[in-house]
Design goal:
The structure is a single chain. 39% of the residues lie in helices and 17% in strands. The chain is built from six helices and five strands; from the N terminus they run βαβαβαβααβα. Strands 2-1-3-4-5 form a five-stranded parallel β-sheet, with helices on both faces. α1 links the parallel β1 and β2. About 6% of the residues have low confidence.
Length: 161
């Protein structure tokens, strides 16, 4: 007898009308075991991003902040091909992390992510020059395509041998 009662009415659709999770007739590009680094302080986002890349055929290093990212990257040098870096992180900001990652591997492709659209337009992004920017939340398809395109661009530059 106390509290609030809610009734939510959602339209019913037939299963045949539901949109598929993946475009039919077009498979996602597959990785060839390239090494990727994912840096995000949100554990759920970190794990889901890593899982998506692993299922797409990439080897993945995980880091929950900038210090962990630099430690993970230090032992891999040129073997690290792409990094997916959250724009807002504790301890070290993305600009400092990206600069340090580029010192470890100058040919490293960077994909920045952020829940803040403003982060895509600020000077930090311009200074760090990522290959791509993915606004959160992003689809698995968007992530995999962005990583694939970053690696393709790297190969065209002659740095991904």
């Amino acid at each position: 007898g106390h509290g609030t009662k809610f009734r939510i009415f959602l339209p019913a659709i037939a299963a045949s009308e539901a949109e598929p999770l993946q475009r039919q007739g077009s498979a996602l590009p597959a990785g060839q075991g390239e090494l990727a680094l994912v840096v995000d302080d949100e554990s759920t986002v970190l794990e889901m991003t890593c899982l998506a890349l692993e299922k797409a055929g990439y080897e993945v290093l995980r880091a929950s902040d900038g210090a962990e990212a630099l430690a993970a990257a230090a032992g891999h040098g040129a073997g690290l091909k792409v990094a997916v870096v959250d724009t807002v992180m504790p301890f070290l900001g993305s600009h400092a992390v990206i600069q340090a990652l580029h010192e470890v591997n100058p040919s490293l492709s960077i994909i920045q992510t952020s829940a803040s659209i403003g982060a895509a337009r600020n000077g930090d992004r311009a200074a760090s020059m990522p290959h791509a920017f993915l606004p959160k939340p992003f689809l698995v398809e968007q992530l995999v395509v962005a990583v694939h395109e970053a690696l393709q661009a790297q190969r065209l530059r002659g740095n991904g041998k």
